[in-house]
Amino acid sequence: MIEAYFQNSQVSMTREVYFEMCAALGSEPIDSEIPVEISDFPVEIQEIFAIYYKLKDDWDTMNGVYLGKTYTGLTDILNIYEIDKVDQKYFLEWFAVLDAARSKVFSAMRESRQSKK
User: Concatenated DSSP letters for 28-83?
Assistant: First the structure.
């Protein structure tokens, strides 16, 4: 579900756009194809996404490879959001899950662009 969210966000596919596309084509929406949006996740995960997006992306600029988020300043951000010390480990584990899914999406996009050349 997380990977699908990142895929949809990269191509700006929202539920609204999907339903408009189905209406224009005269087809019925298929539940499994309806784009995942941030509001589909529990509030706790939405909060994790909000903090995750505050972190800086790290890229290998020579090769265009996504390296993940830079955790510089993470402790300050977690403290500003008043995340309990106990929950900070949980957040960090989720950041790793989000980074893995996002890396996979970026890698697939990169491979797709290279195969078209």
Answer: ---GGGSPP-GGGS-HHHHHHHHHHTTSEEEEETTTTEEEEEE-TTHHHHHHHTT-
Q: According to the model, what pLDDT value does residue 116 have?
A: 76
Name 49's Cβ contacts closer than 8 Å, sequence gap at least 6: 38, 41, 98
Rounded distance, CA 101 to CA 110, Å?
14
Four-residue CA torsion sign, 87, 91, 97, 98: positive
For 22-69, what is each residue's pLDDT tens digit?
Answer: 999 999 999 888 888 888 899 999 999 999 999 999 999 888 889 999
